[in-house]
Design brief:
This protein is of the alpha/beta class. It is built from twelve helices and 18 strands. The longest helix has 29 residues. The N and C termini lie far apart (about 50 Å).
Length: about 400
Amino acid sequence: MTDFSYDVVVVGGGPAGTMSARYAAMGGARTLLIEEHRAAGSPVQCTGLVSSKTLDVCGIKPGPWVYQEVTGAHIFAPDGSSISIGGEKVRAYVVDRKMFDRHLLAQAAAAGAEVLIGTKAVGLGDAEGKKVLEVISGGRKMRIKTGVVIGADGVQGSIARWSGLGQVRKLLSGVQIETAYDVADTDHVEVFVGSEVPGFFAWVVPVNDNTARVGLCIDPARTQLSAYEHLMQFLDSNPRMKERAARGCSDMLVGCIPLGPQSCTAGDGVLITGDAAGQVKPTSGGGVYMGALCAKIAGEVAAKAALSGDTSAGALMEYDRRWREAVGRELAVGMRIHKVFGRLGDEDFNELIRFFGEPEVLELINTYGDIDHPSILIGKLLAKAKGKKLFGMFRVALKAMVSRE
């Protein structure tokens, strides 16, 4: 068994892992990133829709991995009515996640992080005040001593479990296909809510004029069917899908969306970040922006602790405190929103879409809407909804978004 030594070791080569490694290396720490699969970004487990703020937090500009610029969304109620939100401003990008992830990995390497692809973590222990990560790489077992291990290994990763930090509070189940589709507007995504998609929503993300990613995510606690079965029913029964979507697909991905961070994301010599830490928006299921933002903090804190020689839980709690100050409230109230809206019926959603379609409300949405930080918009909607029937339906969620708790 071969031994190696680093200041910081990052497990996972997705956006959270590469951002952690990049900022740890920029902080002066000798950093190693390991990725289980043979290529970064594979297998893809994401819709490939990232907000414009995601690129900002990653410090990158749109590149050849961008398929479409997205300026808005068409949102469909169960009764078939719809509203269109957005405008001329680019709010998101449809990307090739393989190319996007590999671009971020190249940035981490350029910052000085070493990379081992096809390397699986199989154990985590302690020795002489250091963490010891056991890995298998190229059929060979190795021990890697390090000051700090950053677990960016996703919802099914092992670092959180091995270090006693536990798992996220809730898992949603999702499936997506890429298929021929008669795209109405390549700069708008489509969103569908209602009982066809219990506990969450369905989407259509345009790739080009005649191809789209069609998928949905469900709360397994609210149905006995799998996400795939719900998708097949959705394609067969929804009038828009019957009219525009082809039968069959060129690609399919299946995965889970983690919601609700652990009560603590730092331990002796260990940090967890990204999906592994439930740093995912409960209102949309998007995790790249939140994960990248928190991962930057993880890399900075890990490097600082490793170089100072104090990698105790007390020292590393700086990370837990900083990321919660940045996005913790948004995640906490987002979970309340998720729970409330998960209980709405079709008539509730129909009424909600009618409310959103009122000219003054649409103006608020288009002015204050922010996919990454929706709390300002929710506060505006709370004031506008007072006195309406639907206010009682979702006032708990709205109040949660503007509370100071």
